[in-house]
Amino acid sequence: MKKTVDVSIPLGPVHPIFKEPCRIKCETFGEQILAAEVELGYMKKGIERIMIGRPWQEVMFLAERVCGICSVIHNFVFIETMEKISGVTVPDRAAYLRVLANELDRMQSHLIANFSYCYTIEHETIGMYLLNIREKVMDMLEYLTGARVTCAYIVPGGVRFDPDSEDLARIMTAMDDVERETRRYMSMFDSGPLIGLRSKGIGVMTREQAELIHAVGPTARACGITTDLRSDHPTYQRLNFSPLVRTEGDNYARVMLRFQEVLQSVELIRTIIRTLPEGKIRGGGTIGRGETTHKGEAPRGELTYRIKSDTHGRVQEISIQTPSIMNIEACARYMIPGVTSVADVTAAYISSDPCIACTER
Amino acid sequence: MTMLQSLKNAVRQRSIHVCYVDTGSCNGCDIEVLACLSPRYDLEQYGIYVHNNPREADVLLIIGGVTPQWEDKLKMVWDKIPEPKVAVSIGNCPISGCVFSRPQTLTRAPAKSYIPIAAEVPGCPPRPTEIIQAILSVAPLIFKDWELRR
Q1: Residue A1 has pLDDT above 60, yes or no
Q2: Is the separation of the CB atoms in A83 and A60 below 8 Å?
Q3: Which of A151, A327, B4, B107 fits B65 for a cystine, CB–CB 3.0-4.6 Å?
Q4: Three-state SS at B62
């Protein structure tokens, strides 16, 4: 079929908006975007190739460095996969502390995603406020795990450090601050007329389209799909977790959903601290031979690890499926085509919170 | 030293434009560079402005062990930056490749085999304060009396 295209505009790989290199090729007709294509391949490091043949003690740190933003969940899912292979059980207290670390990590990931969006639509004020809240969350993550980004907190059979009641009280106090400030900036985002103009009805993806392209995570939940793998996780089920859903499916819905999930994480952390069981944090066990697939919910969506290990716990085969690849495809296919100006292309792209580092690994 | 030169020295100390390229990192260092923007660390009080446009930049921050796609592009980005310019590498990856420096890897560290690098900030990832300290200590040294030394 013959298409009438004015100009093909490439954005990237070095672009003021992109935190990570990728290239979006837009076919435009005037200011209207007819089609878009995302070109990846600038970040391929071959992590899975490095992992093969190495003991789990090394792969654990490599798995964490698949993605620096959501490092805790990569650690979490990798260790759970190894535990599932070898039948290692986790003490109750450790299971709760894992979720605590994971929720803190989700909060900082969502806050930096919303910062990126606000920065993209040139609303730096809210962006900077959000970065300040994020620093509070990062402090608590460092306080709990000992590191800001690559914490390696979760180990087979448990976690590394045990917070005492004073530490937990400090996290509880920080959560009050985070909740108050998040609510304030969320209402600023919600009621700002220019933010609404720049976000509502832009980059719309319907529920049918999201199902067709297998969108995951907040991108799918903002279109009305109730999918959250945390509701299948035994510890989250004990915390009475239920996923949040919005129905608009535009940029605004995706950003607001992330704000709501930050508040949900605050509530989860409070529940964890209130009901944290006493006991050991390390159960012990040996990693053995087997092959299995395990899934977990990363801040961006569904994360899958398939691992085959030998008797000494060395990884023989591994394949990782990260959430962003589906969301980037959804973005190129449904969100970007139809936006009415080139300026909205980057906004629609950033609102789906793409993470190129874990997409390409 | 002429008056113009001393004026230039004074101005350049308090006006540093930064561009960063991610040549295949895990994102850990990226978010620490972004954290420098936050009001707690506040890059802009030192006159540092993160621009991400190579043609307007003075300082290039390099993050990540260099992937094959970036081998020629890194040089291209470096050539686009007007003189005087300085490159600072953030994290262990541009120095040695860090955990990616193993058999079967696709990264080709170090970054200094592609472009001249003035300062290296080790760490996986380094703290935001260390990144700010590196930029602030190296940039004025390079820019001072640049016209005279040329």
Answers
A1: no
A2: no
A3: B107
A4: strand
- Are B25 and A69 an interchain contact pair (Cβ–Cβ within 8 Å)? no
- Residue ranges making up the domain that contains A159: 43-360
Phi, psi of A248 (to 5 degrees): -70, -45
Structure tokens at A337: 């085509």
| pLDDT digits 0-9 by tens, B26-68 | 888 888 888 888 888 888 888 888 878 888 888 888 988 888 8
| Residues A319-343 as b or e (16 or more Cβ within 10 Å = b) | ebebbbbbbbebbbbbbbbbbeeee
Report if residue A18 sits inside a domain: no
Is A190 an interface residue toward B (CB < 8 Å)?
Answer: no
**Pairwise CA distance, residues B63 & A69, whole Å:** 14
Has residue A6 been placed in a domain?
Answer: no
Is residue A84 a part of any domain in this protein? Answer: yes
pLDDT at A4: 63
What percent of chain A stands above pLDDT 90? Answer: 19
Residue B4 lies in a domain: no
Q: Which amino acid is at A246?
A: R
**B102 has a chain A CB within 8 A of its CB:** yes
- The reply to whether A19 falls in a domain is no
Residue B39, domain CATH: 3.40.50.12280
- Is residue B126 a part of any domain in this protein? yes
Using pLDDT thresholds of 50, 70 and 90, give the confidence band for residue A178: very high
Cβ atoms A340, A30 nearer than 8 A: no
ipTM given for this complex: 0.87
User: Are B69 and A357 inside 8 Å of each other by CB?
Assistant: no
CB contact (8 A) between residue A358 and residue B27? yes
Q: Is B101 inside any structural domain?
A: yes
CA distance linking residue A290 with residue A57, whole number of Å: 17
- CB–CB of A45 and B27 under 8 A? no
- How close B33 comes to chain A (CA, Å)? 10
Distance to chain B for A61, nearest Cα, Å: 8
Q: Which domain holds residue B115?
A: 12-144
Q: Do A131 and B34 count as a contact with CB atoms less than 8 A apart?
A: yes
Assign A270 a pLDDT band (cuts: 50, 70, 90). Answer: very high
Mutation target among A50, A69, A117 for the B interface, most CBs of B within 10 A: A50
> Is any Cβ of chain A less than 8 angstroms from the Cβ of B53?
yes
B100 lies in some domain: yes
Q: What is the mean pLDDT of residues A35-41?
A: 84
C-alpha span between A88 and A290 (Å, rounded): 13
pLDDT in tens, A290-338: 899 999 899 988 889 999 988 888 888 899 988 888 888 888 888 888 7
Show Cβ contacts of residue B47 under 8 Å, excluding neighbours closer than 6 positions.
B13, B14, B15, B16
pLDDT at A205 over 90: no
- Number of domains, chain B: 1
CATH, residue A299: 1.10.645.10
Distance in angstroms (rounded) separating the CA atoms of residues A65 and A59: 10
